[in-house]
Amino acid sequence: MSIVIQKFGGTSLTNINRKSKFLNHIKKAISKGHRLVIVPSAIGRNGDPYATDTLIKQLENICAEIDPRKRDLIMSCGETISAAILSHLLEAEGYPAEPLMGFQAGILTDDNFNSSKILEINTDRIFKILSENKIAVVAGFQGITSNMDITTLGRGGSDISAVALGGFLKADRVDIFTDVPGVAMEDPRIVPTTKYIKEISYDDMYKMSLNGATVIHPEAVKLGKEFKIPIRILSSFEESCGTLISDNKGSKEIVDI
Ligand SMILES: Nc1ncnc2c1ncn2[C@@H]1O[C@H](COP(=O)(O)OP(=O)(O)O)[C@@H](O)[C@H]1O
Ligand SMILES: N[C@@H](CC(=O)OP(=O)(O)O)C(=O)O
Protein backbone atom coordinates (compact mmCIF):
# COMPACT_ATOMS: atom_id res chain seq x y z
CA MET A 1 0.00 0.00 0.00
CA SER A 2 1.52 3.33 -1.02
CA ILE A 3 1.15 5.88 1.76
CA VAL A 4 1.55 9.62 1.28
CA ILE A 5 1.54 12.23 4.04
CA GLN A 6 0.12 15.64 3.10
CA LYS A 7 0.68 18.50 5.54
CA PHE A 8 -1.26 21.74 5.13
CA GLY A 9 0.03 24.84 6.93
CA GLY A 10 -2.12 27.46 8.61
CA THR A 11 -1.86 29.85 5.66
CA SER A 12 -3.30 27.17 3.34
CA LEU A 13 -6.35 26.57 5.54
CA THR A 14 -7.57 30.17 5.88
CA ASN A 15 -11.22 30.37 4.70
CA ILE A 16 -11.51 26.58 4.66
CA ASN A 17 -14.63 25.53 2.70
CA ARG A 18 -15.81 23.13 0.00
CA LYS A 19 -14.20 25.30 -2.70
CA SER A 20 -10.78 25.48 -1.00
CA LYS A 21 -8.05 24.96 -3.58
CA PHE A 22 -5.95 22.69 -1.36
CA LEU A 23 -8.67 20.02 -1.66
CA ASN A 24 -7.52 19.40 -5.25
CA HIS A 25 -4.22 17.97 -3.98
CA ILE A 26 -6.04 15.53 -1.71
CA LYS A 27 -8.42 14.44 -4.47
CA LYS A 28 -5.53 13.99 -6.92
CA ALA A 29 -3.56 11.77 -4.53
CA ILE A 30 -6.64 9.64 -3.84
CA SER A 31 -7.33 9.28 -7.56
CA LYS A 32 -3.77 7.94 -7.95
CA GLY A 33 -4.57 5.21 -5.42
CA HIS A 34 -2.46 6.52 -2.53
CA ARG A 35 -3.53 5.98 1.09
CA LEU A 36 -3.50 9.40 2.69
CA VAL A 37 -2.60 10.78 6.07
CA ILE A 38 -3.44 14.48 6.23
CA VAL A 39 -1.70 16.65 8.83
CA PRO A 40 -3.31 20.07 9.26
CA SER A 41 -1.95 23.02 11.24
CA ALA A 42 -4.14 25.54 13.04
CA ILE A 43 -6.25 27.64 10.68
CA GLY A 44 -4.86 31.05 9.73
CA ARG A 45 -2.56 33.44 11.50
CA ASN A 46 -2.63 35.72 14.53
CA GLY A 47 -6.10 37.29 14.84
CA ASP A 48 -7.91 34.42 13.14
CA PRO A 49 -10.09 32.73 15.78
CA TYR A 50 -8.29 29.36 16.02
CA ALA A 51 -4.76 30.44 15.08
CA THR A 52 -2.07 29.42 17.58
CA ASP A 53 -1.16 33.00 18.52
CA THR A 54 -4.82 33.91 19.05
CA LEU A 55 -5.19 30.96 21.41
CA ILE A 56 -2.08 31.82 23.43
CA LYS A 57 -3.43 35.38 23.85
CA GLN A 58 -6.44 33.98 25.73
CA LEU A 59 -4.03 33.10 28.54
CA GLU A 60 -1.65 36.04 28.10
CA ASN A 61 -4.56 38.47 28.47
CA ILE A 62 -5.13 37.09 31.97
CA CYS A 63 -1.48 36.93 33.06
CA ALA A 64 1.75 36.89 31.04
CA GLU A 65 3.32 34.15 33.15
CA ILE A 66 1.88 30.86 31.93
CA ASP A 67 2.46 27.33 33.17
CA PRO A 68 3.93 25.45 30.16
CA ARG A 69 1.45 22.57 30.57
CA LYS A 70 -1.53 24.94 30.31
CA ARG A 71 0.14 26.77 27.43
CA ASP A 72 0.49 23.49 25.52
CA LEU A 73 -3.10 22.53 26.22
CA ILE A 74 -4.47 25.73 24.69
CA MET A 75 -1.92 25.81 21.84
CA SER A 76 -2.89 22.29 20.76
CA CYS A 77 -6.57 23.28 20.31
CA GLY A 78 -6.07 24.95 16.91
CA GLU A 79 -4.85 21.74 15.26
CA THR A 80 -7.60 19.70 16.95
CA ILE A 81 -10.21 22.05 15.46
CA SER A 82 -8.55 21.74 12.03
CA ALA A 83 -8.66 17.93 12.19
CA ALA A 84 -12.39 17.99 13.02
CA ILE A 85 -13.25 20.52 10.29
CA LEU A 86 -11.06 18.96 7.62
CA SER A 87 -12.30 15.41 8.19
CA HIS A 88 -15.91 16.67 8.09
CA LEU A 89 -15.19 18.61 4.89
CA LEU A 90 -13.63 15.53 3.26
CA GLU A 91 -16.64 13.37 4.16
CA ALA A 92 -18.95 16.06 2.74
CA GLU A 93 -16.96 15.79 -0.49
CA GLY A 94 -17.41 12.02 -0.57
CA TYR A 95 -14.09 10.96 0.98
CA PRO A 96 -14.50 9.01 4.24
CA ALA A 97 -12.09 10.44 6.81
CA GLU A 98 -11.31 9.98 10.50
CA PRO A 99 -9.97 12.80 12.69
CA LEU A 100 -7.33 11.98 15.28
CA MET A 101 -5.71 14.13 17.91
CA GLY A 102 -1.99 13.48 18.33
CA PHE A 103 -2.52 11.10 21.26
CA GLN A 104 -5.19 9.14 19.37
CA ALA A 105 -2.68 8.75 16.55
CA GLY A 106 -0.23 7.23 19.04
CA ILE A 107 2.24 10.15 19.10
CA LEU A 108 4.25 9.82 22.32
CA THR A 109 6.56 12.70 23.29
CA ASP A 110 8.85 13.67 26.13
CA ASP A 111 7.59 16.16 28.73
CA ASN A 112 9.62 19.14 27.56
CA PHE A 113 6.45 21.23 27.25
CA ASN A 114 6.25 23.78 24.41
CA SER A 115 9.02 22.06 22.45
CA SER A 116 8.58 18.35 23.04
CA LYS A 117 10.33 15.66 21.05
CA ILE A 118 8.50 12.73 19.49
CA LEU A 119 9.81 9.52 21.09
CA GLU A 120 7.63 6.99 19.31
CA ILE A 121 4.46 6.63 17.25
CA ASN A 122 2.15 3.67 17.75
CA THR A 123 0.76 3.43 14.22
CA ASP A 124 -1.92 0.75 14.85
CA ARG A 125 -4.91 3.07 14.74
CA ILE A 126 -3.75 4.92 11.62
CA PHE A 127 -3.06 1.65 9.79
CA LYS A 128 -6.54 0.44 10.73
CA ILE A 129 -8.11 3.61 9.29
CA LEU A 130 -6.06 3.33 6.09
CA SER A 131 -6.92 -0.35 5.70
CA GLU A 132 -10.62 0.62 5.84
CA ASN A 133 -9.91 2.87 2.84
CA LYS A 134 -10.40 6.04 4.84
CA ILE A 135 -8.25 9.14 5.09
CA ALA A 136 -6.57 9.67 8.47
CA VAL A 137 -6.58 13.35 9.47
CA VAL A 138 -4.02 13.74 12.27
CA ALA A 139 -3.80 17.04 14.16
CA GLY A 140 -0.26 18.36 13.67
CA PHE A 141 1.99 19.95 16.29
CA GLN A 142 0.78 17.85 19.24
CA GLY A 143 1.46 14.67 21.15
CA ILE A 144 1.12 13.19 24.61
CA THR A 145 3.53 12.27 27.40
CA SER A 146 3.61 8.93 29.17
CA ASN A 147 1.74 10.78 31.98
CA MET A 148 -1.07 11.60 29.54
CA ASP A 149 -0.31 15.33 29.34
CA ILE A 150 -0.85 17.06 25.99
CA THR A 151 2.35 18.51 24.52
CA THR A 152 3.31 20.65 21.51
CA LEU A 153 6.42 20.33 19.40
CA GLY A 154 7.57 23.97 19.13
CA ARG A 155 6.39 26.68 16.74
CA GLY A 156 6.07 25.40 13.18
CA GLY A 157 6.02 21.87 14.61
CA SER A 158 3.35 20.41 12.33
CA ASP A 159 6.15 19.84 9.80
CA ILE A 160 7.80 17.60 12.41
CA SER A 161 4.52 15.70 12.98
CA ALA A 162 4.19 15.11 9.23
CA VAL A 163 7.73 13.80 8.72
CA ALA A 164 7.66 11.68 11.89
CA LEU A 165 4.36 10.10 10.78
CA GLY A 166 5.90 9.50 7.35
CA GLY A 167 8.88 7.78 8.94
CA PHE A 168 6.96 5.59 11.39
CA LEU A 169 4.35 4.64 8.75
CA LYS A 170 7.12 3.99 6.19
CA ALA A 171 5.32 6.31 3.79
CA ASP A 172 6.46 6.85 0.22
CA ARG A 173 6.90 10.58 0.76
CA VAL A 174 5.85 13.61 2.76
CA ASP A 175 4.29 16.55 0.89
CA ILE A 176 4.32 19.87 2.74
CA PHE A 177 1.80 22.24 1.18
CA THR A 178 2.23 25.92 1.89
CA ASP A 179 1.60 29.39 0.44
CA VAL A 180 4.67 29.49 -1.83
CA PRO A 181 5.52 27.14 -4.73
CA GLY A 182 8.63 25.67 -3.13
CA VAL A 183 11.91 26.53 -1.44
CA ALA A 184 13.45 29.70 -2.86
CA MET A 185 16.93 31.17 -2.63
CA GLU A 186 15.52 33.96 -0.43
CA ASP A 187 12.20 34.48 1.35
CA PRO A 188 9.83 35.24 -1.58
CA ARG A 189 7.79 37.53 0.66
CA ILE A 190 10.89 39.74 0.94
CA VAL A 191 12.44 39.10 -2.50
CA PRO A 192 9.52 38.44 -4.91
CA THR A 193 11.91 37.97 -7.88
CA THR A 194 13.83 35.18 -6.13
CA LYS A 195 14.49 31.90 -7.90
CA TYR A 196 13.18 28.55 -6.67
CA ILE A 197 15.17 25.40 -6.00
CA LYS A 198 14.07 22.22 -7.76
CA GLU A 199 16.04 19.75 -5.64
CA ILE A 200 18.05 20.12 -2.47
CA SER A 201 19.81 17.72 -0.10
CA TYR A 202 18.69 17.25 3.51
CA ASP A 203 21.96 18.82 4.69
CA ASP A 204 21.65 21.97 2.57
CA MET A 205 17.98 22.37 3.46
CA TYR A 206 18.76 21.92 7.15
CA LYS A 207 21.30 24.76 6.96
CA MET A 208 18.84 26.97 5.07
CA SER A 209 16.03 26.40 7.54
CA LEU A 210 18.36 27.11 10.49
CA ASN A 211 19.28 30.34 8.72
CA GLY A 212 15.70 31.58 8.39
CA ALA A 213 14.02 29.61 5.58
CA THR A 214 10.93 29.09 7.74
CA VAL A 215 9.15 27.21 4.96
CA ILE A 216 10.13 23.98 6.78
CA HIS A 217 11.13 23.30 10.38
CA PRO A 218 14.81 22.27 10.67
CA GLU A 219 13.90 19.33 12.93
CA ALA A 220 11.58 18.02 10.21
CA VAL A 221 14.47 18.05 7.73
CA LYS A 222 16.70 16.26 10.24
CA LEU A 223 14.05 13.59 10.78
CA GLY A 224 13.58 13.26 7.01
CA LYS A 225 17.28 12.46 6.71
CA GLU A 226 17.15 9.93 9.56
CA PHE A 227 14.15 8.16 8.06
CA LYS A 228 15.47 8.60 4.48
CA ILE A 229 12.05 9.80 3.42
CA PRO A 230 11.68 12.22 0.50
CA ILE A 231 9.99 15.52 1.38
CA ARG A 232 8.41 17.85 -1.16
CA ILE A 233 7.50 21.50 -0.54
CA LEU A 234 4.61 22.57 -2.76
CA SER A 235 1.98 25.26 -3.22
CA SER A 236 -1.48 24.57 -1.79
CA PHE A 237 -3.00 26.93 -4.30
CA GLU A 238 -1.54 25.86 -7.64
CA GLU A 239 -0.01 22.93 -9.49
CA SER A 240 3.78 23.09 -9.34
CA CYS A 241 6.58 20.55 -9.19
CA GLY A 242 7.77 22.24 -5.98
CA THR A 243 11.08 21.45 -4.29
CA LEU A 244 12.26 17.92 -3.53
CA ILE A 245 14.35 17.47 -0.38
CA SER A 246 16.21 14.16 -0.47
CA ASP A 247 19.64 12.56 -0.26
CA ASN A 248 20.43 13.48 -3.82
CA LYS A 249 24.18 14.28 -3.59
CA GLY A 250 23.70 17.82 -2.37
CA SER A 251 22.51 18.98 -5.79
CA LYS A 252 20.94 22.42 -5.82
CA GLU A 253 19.25 23.04 -9.14
CA ILE A 254 17.79 26.55 -9.45
CA VAL A 255 14.70 27.06 -11.61
CA ASP A 256 11.91 29.53 -12.34
CA ILE A 257 8.73 27.89 -11.08
N1 LIG B 1 13.81 30.32 1.33
C1 LIG B 1 12.47 30.33 1.43
N2 LIG B 1 11.73 29.72 0.46
C2 LIG B 1 10.37 29.69 0.53
N3 LIG B 1 9.67 30.29 1.53
C3 LIG B 1 10.34 30.91 2.51
C4 LIG B 1 11.77 30.96 2.50
N4 LIG B 1 12.18 31.65 3.61
C5 LIG B 1 11.07 32.02 4.27
N5 LIG B 1 9.96 31.58 3.62
C6 LIG B 1 8.59 31.84 4.07
O1 LIG B 1 7.97 30.65 4.51
C7 LIG B 1 6.57 30.88 4.40
C8 LIG B 1 5.84 29.54 4.51
O2 LIG B 1 6.00 29.03 5.80
P1 LIG B 1 4.86 29.29 6.90
O3 LIG B 1 4.53 30.76 7.01
O4 LIG B 1 5.27 28.60 8.14
O5 LIG B 1 3.62 28.62 6.19
P2 LIG B 1 2.64 27.46 6.59
O6 LIG B 1 1.43 28.15 7.11
O7 LIG B 1 2.37 26.74 5.31
O8 LIG B 1 3.33 26.59 7.61
C9 LIG B 1 6.42 31.55 3.04
O9 LIG B 1 5.26 32.34 2.96
C10 LIG B 1 7.69 32.38 2.95
O10 LIG B 1 7.46 33.74 3.19
N1 LIG C 1 0.13 26.09 14.49
C1 LIG C 1 1.48 25.90 14.99
C2 LIG C 1 2.19 24.76 14.30
C3 LIG C 1 2.50 24.90 12.85
O1 LIG C 1 3.24 24.10 12.32
O2 LIG C 1 1.95 25.91 12.16
P1 LIG C 1 2.21 26.23 10.56
O3 LIG C 1 2.36 24.93 9.84
O4 LIG C 1 1.00 27.01 10.12
O5 LIG C 1 3.47 27.06 10.49
C4 LIG C 1 2.26 27.19 14.94
O6 LIG C 1 1.69 28.23 14.55
O7 LIG C 1 3.41 27.20 15.32
TrEMBL record:
GO cellular component terms, semicolon-separated: cytosol
UniProt keywords, alphabetically: Amino-acid biosynthesis, ATP-binding, Diaminopimelate biosynthesis, Kinase, Lysine biosynthesis, Nucleotide-binding, Transferase
Protein name per Swiss-Prot or TrEMBL: Aspartokinase
Protein family according to the UniProt entry: Belongs to the aspartokinase family.
A Pfam match: AA_kinase
Gene Ontology molecular functions: aspartate kinase activity; ATP binding
SUPFAM superfamilies the UniProt entry points to: Carbamate kinase-like
EC number, UniProt record: 2.7.2.4
Domain of life: Bacteria
Keyword Nucleotide-binding: yes
Function: Catalyzes the phosphorylation of the beta-carboxyl group of aspartic acid with ATP to yield 4-phospho-L-aspartate, which is involved in the branched biosynthetic pathway leading to the biosynthesis of amino acids threonine, isoleucine and methionine.
Domain (Aspartate/glutamate/uridylate kinase): residue spans on this chain: 3-235
One GO term of the biological process aspect: diaminopimelate biosynthetic process
The keyword Lipid metabolism appears for this protein: no
